[in-house]
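SAMPLE LOG
Freezer: B-3
Tube label: C17
Construct: single chain, 282 aa
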Amino acid sequence: MPFDSPSTSDPQPDWHDLLAGYALGSLSPEEQTTLQTLLTERPELKAELLTYQEALAMVPYALEPQSPPPGLEEAIVTAANEQSQQIQPLSTQRRRPSKSIGQRWYGAAMAAAAVVLAMMGIDNYRLRQRQMTLQAELNTRQTEIQTLKKNLLAETAAKPDFENVVEILRQPNALVYSLQGTDDANTSSGSLLTLPNHSEVQLVSHNLPVLPDDKVYRLWSVATETSAPIFCGEFNNTEAGNVQWTVPDALCNATPVKVIITVDAVIDPPVPKGPAVLEGSI
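STRUCTURE (predicted):
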């Protein structure tokens, strides 16, 4: 905020110098005390002080590097030595303001450099923080995507394959076995669908639980009342109660009189051993 130049009656006519000296960092302790008193009495000068500091912060951006002419530094040092031998102490005191001005500009340059370095450090810190935040958000989104993919695959696997069931039922020679639960699974039921001379079978079940990883369902085909059961593959059920698999023996689709589904351990050999949970016939 700009200020009008103080009148001649201003109790501190050199307040501009005090503000500039404070921004440059070159005030003596007495001058600092005077400035603090002035700011207390005239708080509106704080805005002017901020303007000085902002202007000083822009100095490094406005300066263009210049190389001194060859021999200039040596000539200055020689001239300074000659003058110091000729000028009286009183003259030395008169030169102090010039020396103070040089110190102030040097201090201003150092202060500006410090401000620039501090600003760069703050910007770098903010960039790192922003990068960490974005990376965390990306990791979260990737985790959500993976979870959605797993859920989609699980839902797809559990979805009943009604199209395949309908396709089998459309065939005039389709074989459909009605299955009922045994004493060990009296609430279970289902239907086993297949076609003659085809190796695929389709099971649509109700209340047939999904087995743990160390257990498996096995299908057995009994050709006649006196025949030994034939192993016709193994499977685990799905939440939807719909599963399809390929039988290992062509006799499994040779219109047996009865089919049996048992529960066995995965490591058991393919011989009738486990308890029956579903039985049925055409």
